[in-house]
Amino acid sequence: MSRSKPEPVQVVKQRRDNALKALIGGIPYVQWLGIQFDRRGDELTATLPFDEKLIGNPFLPAIHGGVTSAFLEITAMIELSWSMLWEEMEKGTLDPRALDAAHLPRLPKTIDFTVDYLRSGLPRDAYARARVNRSGRRYASVHVEAWQDNRARLFAQATGHFLIPARQPLGAAPGGTAPE
Amino acid sequence: MTDPSPAQRFIEAIPHSRALGMQLEEIGDGRAVISMPYDARFIGDPATGVIAGGAVSALMDTCCGAAVMSYPGARGTATLDLRIDYMRAAKPGQRIIARAECFHATRTVAFVRATAHDEDESLPVATASGAFTMESATREGGK
């Protein structure tokens, strides 16, 4: 393919933002918990805005341990999906315009998930970032950290193993290549 | 089964458990059984309609915590760590039932294991094991 001019920044941003929106917007539980994702390049940060329905201990009050676990698991799973989506999008083998609710890449399946509760979750917004430590053809290992007021003071961390879905050429661009 | 009303009030007092529609089925002597109805809002995989792993985690955590609370002499608890293994997807449309057992407790730590299944009881949907803090009545009294 011939080398073309770099794409305008807005086009690139919009493509990436739309892909992320399609990935997250289709999951009812993510919407129900109110989790949002911020993107800087390929880096994602998840935010869980505080809400009364997230409380597990009304006397402290503290966020429910199950909410913390769910927040970490969603962050890990989205990070893993996003890293695969990103790779295909950058290679040009996937056209994000073909991504809608009916044409989403299959999500990874959680094999196991271990949460380490370091502090009680305060009634405030929580943030999380995940790192894919290993991603093979079938299995992936993902670590995730969550904090509230201070980035260095984690309130929970977790490691999970995921089964990577078989990759089908979903929304593949005709020809399957794009300008590098 | 013990009288569900005070026990159900315990669950009702937890906003998140109430939001997930959890029902306390049985509790006592370090064991708890809690169910969660199927709800389309808690779907984790839109392609299959399967409930999110996170919702199952919340059910498991609540059930394990309830089991610790019902252990003789327990006053309070918090999760230290919890590992969940997902054996299979829960059948869309079916409620999930978790059973937890606090099989050992010291004055400071409680060890818990749990299983969750849907209407098919032959293979669990998930199993869990965890360590919880134990605030015991005896320790309080000894202060």
Key phrases:
heterodimer, A: alpha+beta, Thiol Ester Dehydrase, Chain A, two-stranded antiparallel sheet, B: 143 residues, alpha+beta
How would you describe the overall organization of this protein?
The complex is a heterodimer of chains A (180) and B (143). With 180 residues, chain A is of the alpha+beta class. Chain A has a single domain (9-163), classed as Thiol Ester Dehydrase, Chain A. Chain A contains 3 helices and 8 strands, in the order ααββββαββββ. Chain A has a 6-stranded antiparallel beta sheet. A two-stranded antiparallel ribbon of chain A has the order 3-4. In chain A, a hairpin with a 6-residue loop joins β7 (139-147) and β8. Chain A is globular, with a radius of gyration of 18 Å. The model of chain A is unreliable at 171-180 (pLDDT under 50). Chain B is α+β, with helices and mostly antiparallel strands. Chain B has one domain (4-141): Hotdog Thioesterase (Thiol Ester Dehydrase, Chain A), CATH 3.10.129.10. Helices cover 25% and strands 40% of the residues of chain B. Chain B has helices at 4-12, 15-19, 53-69, 137-141; strands at residues 23-28, 31-36, 43-45, 50-51, 74-76, 79-86, 96-105, 109-117, 126-133, 135-136. In chain B, the strands form 3 sheets. Chain B has a 6-stranded antiparallel beta sheet. Chain B is globular, with a radius of gyration of 15 Å. The mean pLDDT of chain B is 90. Chains A and B meet through α2, β3, α3 and β5 of A and α2, β3, α3 and β6 of B.
Mean pLDDT of chain B: 90
CATH architecture of chain A: Roll
CA radius of gyration of chain A:
18 Å
Number of domains of chain A: 1
CATH superfamily of chain A: Hotdog Thioesterase
What is the H-and-E element order of chain A?
A: HHEEEEHEEEE
**How much strand of chain B?**
35-45%
Mean pLDDT of chain A: 88
* Oligomer status: heterodimer
Provide the helix percentage of chain B: 25-40%
Structural class of chain B: alpha+beta
Structural class of chain A: alpha+beta
Strand order, sheet with most strands of chain B: 1-2-7-8-9-6
Rg over CA atoms of chain B: 15 Å
Number of folding domains of chain B? Answer: 1
- What is the count of β-strands of chain A? 8
Profile the largest sheet of chain A: 6 strands, antiparallel
CATH topology of chain A: Thiol Ester Dehydrase, Chain A
Euclidean distance between termini CA atoms of chain B: 35 Å
Number of helices of chain B: 4
Considering the protein shown, what is the CATH homologous superfamily of chain B?
Hotdog Thioesterase
